[in-house]
Amino acid sequence: MPGTRPGMTKSARYEQAMSDNDDVPFNRNFPLKPGIVEEVRPGVRRVLCNNPSPFTFTGTVSYIVGRGNVAIIDPGPEDAAHAAALLEAVRGETVTHIFVTHTHRDHSPNTARIKQATGAPVYAEGPHRASRPRFESEKHNPESGADRDFTPDIRIAHGDVVEGDGWRLEAVATPGHTANHLAFAWPERKFNFVGDHVMGWSTSIVAPPDGSMIDYMESLDRLAAREEDLYFSGHGPEIPDGPRFVRFLIRHRKAREASILHRLAKGETDIPTMVRAIYIGIDPRLTTAAGYSVLAHLEDLVARGVVATDGDPVITGTYRMAG
Fold first, then answer.
1. Is residue 30 included in any domain, yes or no?
2. For residue 62, what are the contacts with CB-CB under 8 A and spacing of at least 6?
3. What is the mean pLDDT of residues 161-167?
4. Residue 228 and residue 293 in one domain
5. Do 233 and 199 meet the contact criterion of CB atoms below 8 Å apart?
6. Which of 202, 227, 252 is the last residue of a domain?
């Protein structure tokens, strides 16, 4: 890691990276094993699901908030073993609330198992929905990863507060990765459970029409303005100095936009060409996702009148500088 010195502590290396690195200082050190309950901070435990992939890193992380009467955040994918591990982790305790950050299949389907076992009500923004209507010219099914069966018992919105035994969570609207994405802040502890909106190991996927770059950037600004400084993500390790990390993400996204504009300044082109020019050495399994990330930026640029395309801004379109 650039700028680090032998003998530096983990936190010191992180801070040095935050100062020295022009890009996002990702941390991929996450040794937690699936099914093991870990108390990461007093009042916060986590359990990793065994669903690793290029998109989920080592797997989905579910959180247990409180002691005695507890809440579970993001029960995870359709996975009986993970549900059993969560229930074992709270053996002898009472689950009083279930929270879901968003309705992708790696976060919400296990909710039904946990609710059936505990009787706890489910809190979320609402059922899955896209960030915009699907264009007629779009052939790809962008919601193949969506949990269309999920419906919360209690719908909550930005600013709503839910209190439990020794904890208090405030809903923070963070659309962008999905339209219904919420973070759950614990202001008194300066914690924020940020789901997939902010991850310490990688940038989040923003794939239209499921996601929206316009919404995503506004949500990053919202988080950066808040005081919670320790983030617990849906995948990977906790993120110290969360607002500062968010500012790195904002800068990263603006740099990605600049790379797209730099390529378009050379002439009209399509998204696969932009991906090859911008994402050097990308894992081939992530090429499609990278294309949709570029599309998300292009949607924003077209809406702002900076970039033009013929017809709707879609993955198969060609793009040029406006004017």
1. no
2. 46, 47, 48, 49, 72, 73, 74, 75, 76, 82, 86
3. 97
4. no
5. yes
6. 252
